[in-house]
Amino acid sequence: EISSPLYTDCIVTHSFMVVGMRFRGEHKFKKSDIITLELEPSNTYDKNAIKVMVDGIHKAYVAKNENVSIGDLMKQYSNYRITAHGKKNYNQSASLNLEYPWIVCEKCRDMLQASRDYDYTY
């Protein structure tokens, strides 16, 4: 199960690990990578496998202990982006972010609700 979401400037973010880069050309994730995820239900070893693609090329997998949760989020929300973060040049495992820029964070939601409840009549 993935960790609780982080709220940064109204971007809901889930961090997760990816593995297997050493079997796929030892890709080293960079912040500039264009990263996408693809469900791989036909995977022989894990029907919940999720491929990590960089510029359309398969480079890694979402870690097995997180792929069900990440897959559920992918199915629930189609508008997300993936970004690399953390230390540079990991080649055996890396941490990526799954971001939902259109979901309002709890703090901002509370502020919006408070402004709606405010009596603006004078």
UniProtKB/TrEMBL annotation:
Keyword Metal-binding: yes
Pfam families per UniProt: HIRAN
Lineage top rank: taxon: Eukaryota
Domain HIRAN: 13-75
Keyword Hydrolase on entry: yes
Keywords noted in UniProt: Hydrolase, Metal-binding
GO molecular function: hydrolase activity, acting on acid anhydrides, in phosphorus-containing anhydrides; nucleic acid binding; zinc ion binding
Name under which the protein is recorded: 6277_t:CDS:1
